[in-house]
Write a structure and sequence with these properties.
Elements (H helix, E strand, L loop, with lengths): L9 E4 L3 H12 L8 E4 L3 H9 L3 E3 L2 H6 L3 E4 L3 H11 L8 E4 L6 H8 L4 E6 L9 E7 L5 H12 L2 E5 L5 H9 L1 H18 L4 H22 L3 H8 L5 H11 L2 H19 L1
Helix pairs in contact: 4-5, 7-12, 8-9
The protein binds nicotinamide-adenine-dinucleotide.
């Protein structure tokens, strides 16, 4: 199903992995036309990647700002401040700045972009690269509800996005930001179990990954509590409850809770 087309021009400062994933996602879901996007990157090879899917690529950041309404700052965190300072003289009241840089606070973004800038800070995660991000956004002082709606429309085309207060972003980092690594561990371990039980490795990995994908879809699409879905597949005296009991004995539930809390604490320490 196509999403409503956004009547905005989108610019990317930094045409790296994340910018590419976002731009390709927006185009493939029909939320924005390639002709309504523009990107800049000092690396010619990155500009060529964008040109290969019909997005105009230029060499100056100012040009991107002049030609867009929503400007994604998609450079590595250490370059975000300098890039915003470089373009701030060209920001007008038509612009929304979207920063996806890890750890760059709204106050530091405002300091670099100016007091009047409408800033949205987004914390995406790696599955953005395959169109299934779990992202969170928070709004800077000047950002409007319309800015939030536009960013929501864009990120909904490459996964899901929730809106939170900035103080919750460390917890978001601990859960969805770091979460793909926890789930990769789960998939690898399930596949190891399959191999131990006699399955070939490739079959085991495919079954484990598809099981995680399908289970996640059931939670999201049915809206049912995961505990209820678990109860529905554990028949009395059956195979699943036998396996499930081992997970509880191994403390998997507490380990995952501790993992999210440890990563949240670490995000607080380094921000
Ligand atoms: P990347 O290195 O692939 O892309 C950054 C691009 O910016 C590069 O192509 C680089 O040439 C370009 N660049 C460097 N200096 C520039 C300048 N002055 N002006 C314009 N472009 C410039 O990095 P990425 O993985 O796409 O990450 C981009 C941002 O996304 C980072 O701030 C990162 O914290 C954030 N992020 C990434 C992920 C992820 O999974 N990759 C997840 C969450 C957040």
């Amino acid at each position: 199903m196509g999403l409503t087309k956004l009547q905005k021009r989108i610019g990317f400062i930094g045409a790296g992995q994340m910018a590419e994933a976002l731009a390709r996602g927006f185009i493939s879901k029909g939320v924005i036309e390639a002709s309504s996007m523009i990107a800049t990157d000092p690396v010619a090879a990155r500009r060529e990647v964008f040109e290969s899917f019909d997005v105009r690529a230029v060499t100056t950041n100012v040009e991107v700002v002049k030609e867009s309404d929503i400007v994604f700052v998609a450079v590595k965190p250490q370059y975000v401040g300098p890039v915003l300072k470089e373009v701030r003289g060209h920001l007008t009241d038509k612009h929304t700045i979207v920063s996806i840089a890890a750890g760059k606070t709204l106050s530091s973004l405002k300091e670099a972009a100016g007091d009047n800038a409408r800033i949205v800070r987004v914390m995406p995660n790696t599955p953005c690269l395959v169109g299934e991000t779990a992202s969170a956004m928070c709004l800077g002082g000047q950002a409007t509800d319309e800015d939030a709606e536009n960013v929501r429309a864009l990120f909904s085309s490459v996964g899901r996005i929730v809106q939170v207060d900035e103080k919750m972003l460390s917890a978001v980092t601990g859960l969805s930001g770091s979460g793909p690594a926890y789930v990769f561990l789960v998939i690898e371990a399930l596949a190891d179990g399959g191999v131990k039980a006699g399955l070939p490795r490739d079959i085991s990995v495919a079954l484990a990954a598809q099981t995680v994908l399908g289970s996640a879809k059931m939670v999201l699409e049915t809206g049912k509590h995961p505990g209820l879905l678990k109860d529905m597949v554990t028949s009395p005296g059956g195979t699943t409850i036998a396996g499930y009991h081992e997970l509880e004995k191994g403390g998997v539930r507490a380990s995952l809770i501790n993992a999210v809390v440890a990563a949240t604490n670490r995000a607080d320490e380094i921000s």
